[in-house]
Amino acid sequence: MGGDGLFHMDRDGVLIAMTETRYSAEDVLQELLERHPDLLAGGQMTPEDPRRWALIAREHGVSDMEASGARWSIDHLFVDQEAIPTLVEVKRSTDTRIRREVVGQLLDYAANGVLYWPLGDLRAAFESTQRALGRDPVDVIAELCLDTPATIDEFFGRLGDNLRAGKIRMVFVADVIPDELKRITEFLNGQMAPAEVLAVEVKQYKAESHPGTVFVPMVFGRTATSSVRHGRRPTPDRQLLLERSAPETRELLKCFAELANELGLVLRETPRGAVLETRSKDPVAYIYLAVWDTVEVQLQPLRDRGWSDDADEVLQILRAMTSKAVTSKNPNLPTADALTHWARLRPVLTRIAALYEPNAV
Predict the structure, then answer these.
(1) Number of domains in the chain
(2) Are residues 301 and 274 in the same domain?
(3) Beta bridge mates, 54
(4) How far is C-alpha 23 from the geometric centre of its chain's CA atoms?
């Protein structure tokens, strides 16, 4: 049957042997990463807390001194859900530079990017890139930060903090990662902190009689030390977050509790705040404690159930309550604005709860 030990079974139960196939050009792999960043295998990098990605830019310029033009350009600049900049350099295995030169090249980019990337330029590049991909930058950030909601301002503020602290990730990507590069990557990743260095091999497999392509990514460079260093953040101390929260956040929690008691809803505490939900566990809204101090109203679940008109009407009411940009899926606004407009927010939450349990509210 042949093949390289990888097989695909079609709908008719026919087993098709897949053969490893080299990329026709480096740009092909670059384009794949732009459209499908999951090929970076974020789940292999941190299995306990898989990385999610958003693209800031392709061929993003890197200067070697302040207020100068770009001397180099990085193939891809991604960011993960913790706002950690991730520099990606792509090479084919046939490129002899993949063995040593690419290491110095990426270290150059990282060292100078940390110093000379203006935060405003990174944000502008991100917004331009996402719009070119047909996506709303605000929605992209909302989807990326599922665990720690953030506005674009807040998210890029975190990114700036990470840059200043040197908390970045450097990733070599190729169809085949040479043993020499694997050893260098593992050594660097074991020594560097808080920066991280990894290599991702993205092999592709095809069959002459089969129209599809199979991609198999594999991450190299993780060490026991780096796994601990870059693992999941500890669960926050809720009481400490509560004490550090804005007064408006604490007051809004009381308003939510009173509303839950009146309507027969449930206000369930979470490590980072609380969720207002129906007795059937349908989410109505979340309150996030310090340092976020925000309220997130769950509109996407309404659309998923066919209540798009209701969701759109609620979205317009919420947007009128704050000067902050809010997403269309699960908009969040500062607790200070929510408390100021509680007389308008209260019926909105009641309306959402009534959609789920019309006979209970």
Answers:
(1) 2
(2) yes
(3) 79
(4) 27
